[in-house]
């Protein structure tokens, strides 16, 4: 029998979603971990996907000028070859980078909602991908701004975005790391990471909307008002976290996030090992 979500759970998890969605620490992992530690249950993948609509609204508003310019340039370039500049190419790059996760997300949607939420897997991914972040910082030249992004860069980052289907990886962490590996500046990698997440997250949230009230797999059943409040909280805190993250990564490396991820992953493993929480 599916458990019903409480108002406290909805508020707390909405806040967690907003605070962690854009940081390379995995919002899905934090929602899963905090649900288990604090409430002894799993909010569910559908709840995660729907509250992400709030954080994506934050992206749409924060990058509104960029998005409007890119969309306008893309349509203008379709009509007139002489107007195919950087923004026109960015429009195509976002489309290309979205295709892989769209296909894999649809094919593996059932596994994502069930076996993919096992806390052993979450903890291991938190730790393993911390070393990917460190490698990206060490190997990446960080010499090319967003204006120098290429189609190959977009495809590499789009492929990396597929890893975000596994809780514990982090969408922004995987795509930004891929951007660093191909030589993009850190801020440029994160900016493009946010842009290519928009179509995938919006599609995922809308697709999962029907399931959040009656979860198809593991998860708590939430009411309409609870979903609305959680999504609103995620939007407000998500907007703040975007501004903070872009400022932070312009002066600091991802080592800070990697260190935090390893510590959290080890904590979850210890709690699982002693039986304090269930996988």
Structure, described:
By secondary structure, this protein is mainly alpha-helical. Helices cover 71% and strands 0% of the residues. Helix 5 packs across helix 10, helix 7 packs parallel to helix 9 and helix 7 runs antiparallel to helix 12. It is globular, with a radius of gyration of 18 Å. The mean pLDDT is 86.
* H and E order: HHHHHHHHHHHH
What would you call the structural class?
Answer: mainly alpha
Distance between the termini: 19 Å
Helix content: over 70%
Largest sheet: none
Mean pLDDT: 86
Radius of gyration: 18 Å
Question: What overall geometry do the principal axes of the alpha carbons give?
Answer: globular
The total count of helices amounts to: 12
Share in β-strands: under 5%
Identify low-pLDDT runs: none
Q: How many β-strand stretches?
A: 0
